[in-house]
Amino acid sequence: MGLERFRHIAIEGPIGAGKSSLARRLAAHLGAELMLEKAEENPYLERFYADVPGYAFQTQVFFLFQRMRQVRELAQPRLLAPAVVSDFMLAKDALFARMNLSDEEYHLYSQMYAQVSAQLPQPDLVIWLQATPHTLIQRIKQRGIAMEQRISPEYLQKLCDAYADHFRSFEGAPLMVVNSENFNPVERDGDFHALVNALAQFRGPRAMFDLRQPGSG
Fold first, then answer.
1. Residue 7 in contact with residue 206, Cβ under 8 Å?
2. 133 φ/ψ angles, rounded to the nearest 5 degrees
3. What are residue 215's phi and psi, to 5 degrees?
4. Reported pTM
5. What is the DSSP letter of 83?
6. Of 11, 79, 106, 148, which is least packed with CB atoms within 10 Å of its CB?
7. Does domain 8-209 have CATH number 3.100.10.10?
8. Is the sign of the CA dihedral 39, 40, 44, 47 positive or negative?
């Protein structure tokens, strides 16, 4: 299959990119453990989306320690499912913090992040799902999570830009960049298997997967 060398595959991208859906299918395909974010457990998130003043910092710190606990589990031995597919990586936490916190809050947050992240394992492969804000808005509406309906196209544009800035110089793991505009790995088997084949053949530090470009998959 060629994917056995990746003990931890992390799928990243902005809200609505399709991270969880791809993670579920890829984990099932590989017989890997599935590790999903637990955003619904964050008691501050709904108030953050409602733009209630003062909740960005609490939201971010809760996510930081929640994600830390999940990533720490990756260091534990696994007998039944030695591989893990997650719909997040810890580095996303700092990305969101830089976007959402004031300079003073971010200074305090960054000290906590440095302590938390220092000893945690990195993914063996990162899949970055790209999509335009217009596409993300449509997907967010379609999945119908009430608190997400307040997210504006402007916020999503800032988020897409932040991901682009982050991954432009990213060297923490091999990176497969996926144009998800016309990519539906849940309903179209051909899309999913084209990506799996591309991942199996992937040997470089980074590559682009785009179904609109012949030879990319």
1. no
2. -55, -35
3. 90, -10
4. 0.93
5. -
6. 79
7. no
8. positive
